[in-house]
Write a structure and sequence with these properties.
It is built from eight helices and four strands. A four-stranded mixed sheet has the order 2-1-3-4. A hairpin with a 3-residue loop joins strand 3 and strand 4. The relative contact order is 0.17.
Length: 214
């Protein structure tokens, strides 16, 4: 299999970490592709009409996207414990945490457009404040309500890669005043799957915006 990825995408890193945790990393060739809404990548558009990574090229199903679909596909390929539970409360708990993690990435990227990537005269401060509030509210919910005691699942992988990206891009801090969340994140970050997939690089936006990282 071939994975079209990006070294500074939280969505792409989630799929790579998932592959490592599932014991499938040696079956996937990871190819880095720069993508940006303002800088078209023809190779990515050739396999995904949305022009985004990650995309997994599979032998029997062709090109698969987005990140959760890729993880679900990989979840069916390994012989170990399923990282996306098949049913019951465990499934909904894992997918709910994944939804929070996905929302953190979405809000963080939107916040960066309003504070760094969009030309300054086009930025909208109320929108930036609204996206920042989503991050803070999510951090607080995670600190109050998540037990983090379950065996590793898709929600944990999504959350760890999301928090790592938020720290990588110097977005609103999740550590201060949230000791439980911080302890869990620091411990999860020591897993080989995380240590071997650290973020690096900058997004190359098109001529209408500066070359600023996503």
């Amino acid at each position: 299999m071939t994975l079209y990825s990006q070294s500074h995408s939280p969505y792409a890193r989630k799929t790579v970490v998932f592959a490592h945790e599932a014991g499938l990393a040696d079956r996937i060739a990871v190819i880095d592709h720069e993508t940006s809404p303002t800088n078209r990548n023809p190779a990515v558009f050739a396999v995904n009409p949305l022009g985004k990574v990650p995309v997994l090229i599979t032998p029997e199903a062709g090109a698969i996207f987005d990140s959760l679909v890729i993880c679900d596909y990989l979840n069916g390929l390994h012989a170990g414990r399923r990282l996306i539970p098949a049913g019951g409360s465990a499934r909904w708990q894992a997918l709910r945490l994944h939804a929070v993690a996905q929302g953190l990435c979405d809000a963080g990227i939107a916040l960066r457009w309003e504070t760094a990537r969009r030309p300054e005269h086009l930025r909208h401060l109320p929108l930036a404040e609204g996206q920042a509030a989503k991050l803070v509210e999510s951090y607080d919910l995670l600190e109050r309500q998540e037990s983090f005691d379950e065996p590793i699942h898709i929600g944990h992988i999504g959350l760890a890669t999301a928090l790592a990206w938020l720290a990588f891009r110097n977005l609103p801090d999740f550590r201060t005043g949230r000791p439980r969340l911080t302890r869990w994140y620091e411990a999860f970050s020591q897993r080989p799957s995380m240590r071997g997939t650290a973020y690096h690089g900058e997004t190359q936006d098109g001529p209408q915006t500066a070359a600023i990282a996503e």
